[in-house]
Amino acid sequence: MFYTYRSKRTTWRTVLFNIISVLTTLAMFLIDPVSSRSGESAAISIMFVILAGCVLSILFAFVVYRTSDEKKGWATIGLLFTLFNISVIAYFIWIGISLV
Question: Which residues span the domain enclosing 18?
Fold first, then answer.
């Protein structure tokens, strides 16, 4: 009979989405210095971390934007990081295919 109004708020899903997106971007920028210092095996493991971070970011983007009681401001920042990561990966895949 009585309906309570639930205000939109930022939850742990948005925070985790932003953390994963930013860490994936940092891993992309730090892959060259880390691999030059420690070797190629570290670079391969960082590449797997980057791919897993992109997949998790895409999944969290769907979860966060499907939730109705979630603020979308912080989630949009995470989405921009995710789109940047995906575009960089797609660019390097495109360059790799073009050179073959």
Answer: 12-99
Q: Within its chain, how far is the Cα of 20 from the centroid? A: 5
The Cα 79–Cα 44 span in angstroms is 25
Within 13 Å and on the Cβ side, how many CA atoms surround 15?
A: 4
* Total-model pTM: 0.85
Q: Is residue 95 part of a domain?
A: yes
Helix (H, G, I), strand (E, B) or coil at 54: helix
Which position has the higher pLDDT, 19 or 42?
A: 19
Question: Does residue 2 belong to any structural domain of this protein?
Answer: no
Q: Domain for residue 4, yes or no?
A: no
Nearest Cα to Cα of residue 82 among 39, 38, 4, 18: 18
What is the count of structural domains for the chain?
Answer: 1
Q: Please count the other Cβ atoms lying within 10 Å of the Cβ belonging to residue 6.
A: 8
